[in-house]
Design a protein that fits this description.
about 0% strand, about 75% helix, 8 helices, about 130 residues, mainly alpha
């Protein structure tokens, strides 16, 4: 079992950064988030910190973790919250990704967008209604 703490991983990241062979911070955070042997609190911290990064790799990694039923609900909820923060910060939401979410991840996204972007929330509700009628 991997017993490295977030602080140890961060220390390794900082050391490798100054050697010139560093991973980007978001890559390091994704690595922690995806490490099933890491403690849930370390993974959750990494998920939360990913809100600062806006790229398709981060968004897809968060989506993948949000959809992984092997993850605890709290981790999936944090993925949803972080996805919502990224979308809100960008003023751009990907409805094709949003409609894939379920459970606690979906609840977190909907809570965030209902508060910050009611137009997105209503658009999502329309999409759901259209999908039900098909």
């Amino acid at each position: 079992m991997n017993t490295r703490t977030l602080y140890e991983i961060t220390a390794v990241y900082i050391k490798s950064y100054f050697k010139g062979d560093s991973m980007e911070k978001w890559e390091q955070l994704i690595s922690i988030m995806q490490d099933k042997e890491a403690r849930d609190d370390e993974r959750d911290d990494a998920i939360i910190d990913l809100y600062e990064f806006n790229n398709d790799i981060v968004i897809n990694a968060l989506l993948e973790e949000a959809l992984d039923d092997k993850n605890e609900n709290t981790l999936r909820a944090s993925c949803g919250e972080t996805l919502a923060q990224i979308w809100i910060n960008n003023s751009d939401i990907d409805f094709s990704k949003l409609i894939k979410l379920r459970g606690s991840a979906l609840n977190e996204v909907l809570s965030q967008i209902k508060h910050s972007r009611k137009d997105w929330y209503f658009e999502y509700m329309k999409l759901i209604e259209m999908n039900k009628s098909k």
